[in-house]
Amino acid sequence: MPIALAQPLARTSLQSVVKWGSHVVTVGGDAPVRIQSMTNTDTEDAIGTAIQVKELALAGSELVRITVNTPEAAQAVPYIREQLDRMGISVPLIGDFHYNGHRLLSEFPDCAQALSKYRINPGNVGKGDKRDRQFSQMIEAAIQWDKPIRIGVNWGSLDQELLASLMDANNQRVNPWDAKQVMYEALITSALESAQRAEEIGLAGHQITLSCKVSGVTDLIAVYRELAKRSKYSLHLGLTEAGMGTKGTVASATALGILLQEGIGDTIRVSLTPAPGEARTQEVVVASEIIQSLGLRKFVPSVTACPGCGRTTSTTFQELTKQIDDFLRDQMPVWRTQYPGVENMKVAVMGCIVNGPGESKHADIGISLPGTGEAPAAPVFIDGEKRMTLRGESIAADFQNVVENYIRERFTPRTPSI
User: Fold this and answer.
1) Which parts of the sequence bind [4Fe-4S] cluster (predicted)?
2) Cα dihedral sign for 85, 283, 293, 59?
3) How confident is the model at residue 416 (pLDDT cuts 50, 70, 90)?
């Protein structure tokens, strides 16, 4: 029998619709796994926030969440939306509400309309009767303005009354659960009961997305596996406080990769803490790489690159690989609109004669650079055949020109709409 293909399982959730004007982003069902991110600007700074939203959108974020925490922030939202529209950026905005969302949505209707989706945390909408009333106000706003919602539960702001109730019930069990298992149950119960309440108020079930965010990899996997069993709603994946750099990237890739492979998750965010001077867009790059590595979507041409060894003590191939990778990412916002299918292209940048020619032949376009002691020549392979050899100090620039020419010849330009 042939070895089974390790393809991600199909997702079976309901499909929500997030839109701004004529721009529609579907989430769940048979829609692609979507990428979203969140600004870290002060929303009251409308210009700065609009600029960062644009940067995130151009990097590939299909939904962008902004904090709406004060009356001044709520007043800024319509202006942020206006600035984005002027720049031709139609990415939907998600309003992130905590504590006072019910009041902001009712007192600032222009904000409620300018947003495309509301994020509601059931752990901080109030307590007792006040919680029910304030949660209802937010759902009623979503219904009034025809907006979908995300009910986002977070273990750092979990409903303490619910958790205490479940802990008390656990103490009555003959064989009590582990405290962490009770916490899992509290997360899931909070999300599902809130979703049920939203539907009772009148919000359509397909317009509800759920999330239960934790910061531990194995905790996230356990919670979402169970949530997917009990839920029909689309699911938003992400570790909360994933961390910085390598730690945050690896943790997010591990948790989200496992869940997406199992057919769990409809939209993702990689919550990276930026290093000083690092662009916020890095979290979008990591999210797209996770999805692309699983074969779920294609965002940018894939670059196969040699890791280097004793045969490749020269740094030439390392420098060239980075230049090519940066070049491809920088050009993709333009190429994507001009050359449909360019994201499927495969590029190989290799470092010596051992695997270089073979890998280059398997790519659409590849270059095999000289290793230590090899002749200073770099054969270029196009569609599996050697087409030329590059030499000299301008190999990187010459190869970029070769790539650009290949794209123009290989991919049919999009016909401009009249």
Assistant:
1) 306, 309, 352, 359
2) positive
3) low
Distance, CA of 75 to CA of 44 (rounded, Å): 8
User: In terms of residues, how long is the chain?
Assistant: 418
Structural contact between residues 149 and 207, judged by C-beta atoms closer than 8 angstroms: yes
User: Residues annotated in the binding site for [4Fe-4S] cluster, as ranges?
Assistant: 306, 309, 352, 359
User: Which residue would you say has higher pLDDT here, 313 or 351?
Assistant: 351
Residue 417 has pLDDT above 60, yes or no: no
* Distance (Å) of CA 418 to CA 85, 86, 87, 415: 20, 20, 20, 9
Buried b (16+ CB within 10 A) or exposed e, 60-71: bbbbbbbbbbee
pLDDT at 242: 79
How many whole angstroms separate alpha carbon 122 and alpha carbon 160?
11
* 370 vs 215, more confident: 215
Per the annotation, where are the binding residues?
306, 309, 352, 359
Residue 165 CA to residue 177 CA, distance in Å, equals 14
* Rounded distance between C-alpha atoms, residue 252 and residue 288, angstroms: 12
